[in-house]
Structure formats: structure tokens, C-alpha cells
Amino acid sequence: MKTRKNHRRAGLIFFLLICLSIFFLFYDSNTRLVTDTYSLYFDNLPPSFDGYRIVQLSDIHAAVLGQNNATLLDAVRKAQPDIIVITGDLIDSKDDLAIVSPLVQALTGIAPVYFVTGNHEWRSGALNNLLSVLTARGVTVFRNSFVRLTVGEESIVLAGVDDPNGPADMKTPEALMSEIRAQVGDPFVILLAHRNDALARYASLNIDLVLSGHAHGGLVRLPLTDGLIGPSREWFPKYTSGVYTDGATQMLVSRGIGNRTGYPRLLNNPELVVAILRRTK
Fold first, then answer.
1. Given pLDDT bands bounded at 50, 70 and 90, which one contains residue 264?
2. What CA–CA distances, in Å, run from 114 to 86, 160, 231?
3. What is the spatial distance between Cα 66 and Cα 84, in angstroms, rounded to a whole number?
4. What is the SS3 string spanning 9-36?
């Protein structure tokens, strides 16, 4: 009888340990920020930009990491960025606007900040208010537009496209690239585009680097998978995390920071991306 009770007690303890392990695994996967650094090599990168550092924040979804986002901001500072880019889905609704102003004010104190819309901004009902807050805090908002970044006497182009949830008659990436080449010639081009599903299209336009998000890393990342669940709830989506190549075009996809999908992350921590531009030797 005593042996049977001991076995039951041991079984209960084992069951509780399994439950706690699963709980902490999910908790860690959804709350602990990781920084992933990618060195990206290009033959045509101007020498002055060799070592240029870009911090990419994507799919924040109004998440707050640490008190007043201190955890996120500390990670950005440690990355020592030359610029910071936000590749969409910063908010989900007008109720999220309260976190935006203090966050972007702190970010612009670290480095210049650039933003493109994601699908959630367009359906939030607060897009115009968001863009007003961003521009008032010194963030450059791309609306199918571009700027030139200069180091010394050399420059590259940083451009951004609105999410496809925007107006049906908005400027296309093809028109934007034609505009860039008409004004600048044939520069090295980095494109900010929230969605991760147009690598072939961008490669056909000879864009050098695309920074995207949207897929949330596939939510669940198991061995030998590139993410389990896609943004449209499809199984085994493509292009969910890391670097993908088509010809001379590289696309770096962030797993994102926040999560408003209704499904928890698993083995897929919130991610701060650091892209380091390198000139091929």
C-alpha cells in the first residue's frame, strides 16, 4: 500500500513538473526578447557603408517589454544602430496610441527612425493619428517614397512601401523604383516592406535588400521547419525568419516582437533584428 502511494505521489510530482515546464516554455517564448544579428554581404555596397548597422523592429503590436519598454530600449541601445527601422504593425487599435509617443521619442534619441505601415495599421481606425504622432516625434514615414542616406561622400537609398491594405491606386513598387532610378541613377537600395511574400517581385526590380516582417516567425518553430502557422493560418509558410535570397536580392524577415494572433508563440521568442551591411571582399 505504501509503495502504491509513493508511486502515485511520484507520478503527480512528475505531472506537475511537466506542466510547469510547458508553462515556463510558453512564457519564455512569448516574453523574453532576443537579439539576432545578421551580416549581409553585397558586391555593390559603397565602401563607406561597410559595417553600417540597422536595427529592425517589426510587428510590435503595442507590446511593452519591461517597464516603459526599458527592456526593448536597452537592447536597441546595445545594438548601436546607425538607423532604426519599424516595418509595420506597430499598433492594432486607437487604444494602442498611448504607448507610441514615449517609445518613438526614446528611439529617436538613439538613432534616426523610419517607418512603414503594416496591415494592422490600416484596419486600426487610427492610422492618421498614428502617422501624426510619428512625424511629430521626428520619425520619417515612408508612403511609397524614399530618402538618400549619406556617409562621407557616398550614399545609398532607403525606401518604403505602404502595406497592400492601403489604397488600391497607391504607387506600385515598380513605379517607386522607376522614380528612384530617374532621380538617383542606379543606387544601392534598401526597401522596407511589411509583408514577406514578394521576394520574387522585388528581385525582378533589382532591389538589393528588403526588410520585412508580418509572419511572426510562423508562431511555432519546430526543428526542420520554417515556422508552422502563417499569417493567413496556412501550414508551413515560407519566408518566416532570417535571410532569403533570389538572385542578387536578399530579404531579411523579422520574427517580430508582439503577438495579437490569438495563438501563443512556441520556441519563437520576440526578436530584435540587427542587420550589418558588409561589402564583399
1. confident
2. 6, 9, 24
3. 20
4. HHHHHHHHHHHHHHHHHHHHHHHCCEEE
